[in-house]
Amino acid sequence: MTKLGVVLVAFNSAGVILECLESLFGAEAAERLAVVVVDNASSDGTPERVLGWASGAEPFAANPACPVQLRAAPKPVAVAERAPGEAADGPLTLVRSPVNGGFAYGVNRGLEALKARDDVFAFWVLNPDSVVPPHTPARFLAAIDGRDFGMTSSRCIYYERPDLVQTDGGFVDRRTGVCHARNIGAPVSTPLPDPASLDFVTGANTIVSRRFLDEVGLMPEDYFLYYEEVDWAFRRGAAFPIELVDGAEIYHHGGTSIGSGGGGLNRRPTPFANYFNHRNRLRFVARHMPQARASAAAWTAAKAAQVLVKGGWAEAEALVAGALDRPPPAPIAARIKDPAARALAFGRGR
């Protein structure tokens, strides 16, 4: 039986990841999932909570606010503990990374572990602060199993506002490098967009084929946060069109680890999020749209002025430092205490 590999990258995800795991292992076609949790050196006991959940020692308590009626996942779930670079095994593998190398770093360690298994034919990158309805894995499998495909996704809906779309994929403004989500904030009754109109799909919910990995490669790791899935999609070429699977929705909190803005939920991006978002936007422009460097820089200056007018001094300082690819302001650097992680977050790509 072939498997759909699932990569969950966890960083201080103890408060959300058990609900994600329960939704996956209680879903239809759960027997066809091979799940890898890559823990990016969490300090909140995330790996221990995963192990406790899998053994049944920590009973799962459903969140009354969960927008999905979850089916109970049978326990215990067999867990294989592995180091980075080792092959995944069984229904659930826990990979403990000694360093927080960023989102793509964690994704790639999970992809490597799953790719070493001959029975895994496709790879689903899913955020641990997501909840999967019981029908979603089966609908993905029905859409991709037994045929060639490239990159696919589905509708992401706000966990806190299950009547609103969070994203149906997105496109990149060719003048500024700014990413825009399709149908953000729209009612969930809104039809899916034409996949041909999309430049990328969200890294919170992306499935790629084995051939995609063989030919396109792993995610670029030097962004640390933001734009890695956009870069991945831009590298895919015409041989790997984007697809969307109707009826395979997920519900996603978003920003639980890093404080990113929340679109229709009016979350204001933190200085930490601003630093990486604007640094990586200009890094992405230099790689994929070099003709837009001047207009992208002009947009950055206008955005910084707008943030300042609203009183966001710390946010503007972080934005400018990121855009200039300079070391971050001290409060941002202080959030990453491990020297090895800081080197990966702030030193790569310069």
Name the average pLDDT: 94
Compute the number of helices: 11
Q: Pairing-aware structural class of the strands and helices?
A: alpha/beta
- Unreliable segments (pLDDT under 50, ≥5 consecutive)? 258-264
> What's the number of domains?
2
**Measured distance between first and last alpha carbons:** 45 Å
H/E order of the elements? Answer: EHEHEEHEEHEEEEEEHHEEHHHHH
Inertia-based shape: globular
- Main sheet record: 8 strands, mixed
Assign the CATH architecture of the largest domain.
Alpha-Beta Complex
Proportion of residues in β-strands? 15-25%
Q: Enumerate the strands of the largest sheet in spatial order, edge to edge or round the barrel.
A: 3-4-2-1-5-12-7-13
**Which radius of gyration do the C-alpha atoms yield?**
19 Å
DSSP, total strands:
14
Helix content: 25-40%
What's the CATH class label of the largest domain? Alpha Beta
Query: In the CATH scheme, what's the topology name of the largest domain?
Result: Spore Coat Polysaccharide Biosynthesis Protein SpsA, Chain A
